[in-house]
Amino acid sequence: MLLDQDSKNNLKNLFGSCIGFDEPMSRHTYFRVGGPAEAFIVPENIKQLAEIISWSRDKGIPYIVIGDGSNLLIKDNGIPGIVILLTKCLDKIVFSGKEKEPVLVTAMAGVRTQTLCRFAIREGLSGMNFALGIPGTVGGAIMMNAGTSYGSVSDILDSVNVMISSGALLKITKEEMAFSYRKLSWNNNLTNRCQGAPIIIDGSFRLCLSDPVLLEKEAGKILKKRRENQPAEMPSAGCFFKNPPAGKTAGQLIDMAGLKGARIGGAEISAKHANFIINTGKASASDILDLMQLVQKKVFDRFNITLEPEVIIVGV
């Protein structure tokens, strides 16, 4: 592991009750699997977040930031270094008012995506309904360019504020970001300026005025369809694989390969939606990874297509 006792004592003195050690990450992911984080910090405000980032940079200790862990698979041996949870310190939504369109709504990275969707409906603002039913937080949704057949984050994003390694804040417009299918890429000039990958603090979204009643009606239809087609009753990370650029979806390919219901340990391919790997109750991260590799092999052998995980895999 990366933290010696002196470093742990130093962190404890700096961050007090905000920090814990050997925290089981199974408590913080939708999959409900994963080994411990060597250090786990829940900063109370942006100032404290900046202090953690600066400390990590000065000590050469790696960190990752997480929200709800809805799209994470953490390996059984856990995560060396520091895990930073953003849902407490970055939890506000503000908007510019309805005097003119587009209406800019700014949501901090730790806000749950569904909270933002509901806020937009209440305020009579269209543009967010595509994300109804997508789990996780705004920061993760931006990083993954989260989306459905109805749209994606890149369609409505205006700009983000990020924290760079020094702890300073920087505004980045959408034009400075490169979005693709389920991915946001920072350009090299930006990462050089930030001295590494920046941390998203908030995102501003361009929404339009609409009728809350109509938005709610549309929301009901979208959510009904998701409930009918997805296994929400079991722990999972949503769609596990990215869809290929053309042709059949990942779920269709997995189904055609005869893998619905396939199981390794406590991990299983959902019989309801073949692109969902579910935890039936006692899965390990290794079970899920082994099942992932089985799917990739079977689909490649039959269709000569390599399925790429949409889920982010971290840990050792």
Describe the structure.
This protein has 316 residues and is an alpha+beta fold. The chain folds into three domains: 5-85, Uridine Diphospho-n-acetylenolpyruvylglucosamine Reductase, domain 2 (2-Layer Sandwich); 93-227, Uridine Diphospho-n-acetylenolpyruvylglucosamine Reductase, domain 3 (2-Layer Sandwich), CATH 3.30.465; 231-314, Uridine Diphospho-n-acetylenolpyruvylglucosamine Reductase, domain 1 (Alpha-Beta Complex), CATH 3.90.78. It contains eight helices and 20 strands. It has helices spanning 5-15, 46-59, 113-122, 138-143, 188-194, 212-229, 250-256, 285-303, and strands at residues 19-24, 36-41, 63-66, 72-74, 79-85, 93-95, 103-108, 125-126, 147-148, 151-152, 157-163, 169-173, 177-180, 183-186, 199-209, 236-239, 263-264, 267-269, 276-279, 312-314. Strands 6, 7, 8, 11, 12 and 15 form a six-stranded antiparallel β-sheet that branches. It starts with a helix and ends with a strand.
What are the SSEs and their pairings?
Blueprint: H1 5-15, E1 19-24, E2 36-41, H2 46-59, E3 63-66, E4 72-74, E5 79-85, E6 93-95, E7 103-108, H3 113-122, E8 125-126, H4 138-143, E9 147-148, E10 151-152, E11 157-163, E12 169-173, E13 177-180, E14 183-186, H5 188-194, E15 199-209, H6 212-229, E16 236-239, H7 250-256, E17 263-264, E18 267-269, E19 276-279, H8 285-303, E20 312-314
Parallel strand pairs: 2-5, 3-5, 4-20
Antiparallel strand pairs: 1-2, 6-7, 7-15, 8-15, 9-10, 11-12, 11-15, 13-14, 16-19, 17-18, 18-19
